[in-house]
Design a protein that fits this description.
Length: about 170
């Protein structure tokens, strides 16, 4: 009788550990569980494909304008004036510049699409990106102008945005 109770407890403990392992494994593969906010714009990628630096930025509201490479191309091809911000979560200049960028877009009322080129590295060649951060303006599917680097303040971003939209 004592052996049956002992083996029953051992079996129960094993089943509990297996259940916990399965739950933890499935929860970590759910994109919504990667961030506290549930924000996950990389719909064409599995969570395990993302770089750690990208995952670290999922809860940062300054980076909640990200699109996939295909979505970005559709937006550019849409024909209307579009701003695209090419950035990388491993770029210290991007980390410093992005709060200025989002402030400038809030101030001007314009919209921006962000493209994380750490995740979509083919964008370097496709859009001839030489450095990050780069803010580019597109009309009718063609690039009109770009601002490369960290201007160091929101006003310079706003000035560029307004010069592209004619709202100077």
């Amino acid at each position: 009788m004592g052996n049956k109770l002992f083996y029953g407890i051992i079996a129960l403990i094993i089943v509990a550990f297996v259940g916990i392992f399965i739950y933890m494994n499935s929860a970590s593969n759910d994109p919504e569980n990667l961030s506290d906010s549930g924000y996950y714009p990389y719909t064409d990628k599995d969570p395990e494909e993302l770089e750690g630096a990208t995952i670290d930025k999922l809860d940062d509201e300054n980076y909640h304008y990200n699109k996939t490479l295909d979505e970005t191309q559709e937006i550019i091809d849409g024909g209307e004036g579009e701003f695209v911000y090419f950035w990388s979560p491993t770029c210290v200049h991007c980390i410093a510049a992005t709060p200025f960028l989002t402030d400038a877009f809030d101030e001007t009322g314009e919209e921006v699409t962000q493209l994380n080129i750490l995740e979509y590295d083919q964008a370097w060649n496709e859009y001839a990106i030489e450095a990050t951060p780069t803010l580019a303006y597109f009309e009718d599917g063609e690039e009109v102008d770009r601002l490369t680097g960290n201007p160091g303040n929101a006003d310079d971003y706003a000035e560029f945005i307004n010069s592209m939209t004619g709202d100077e």
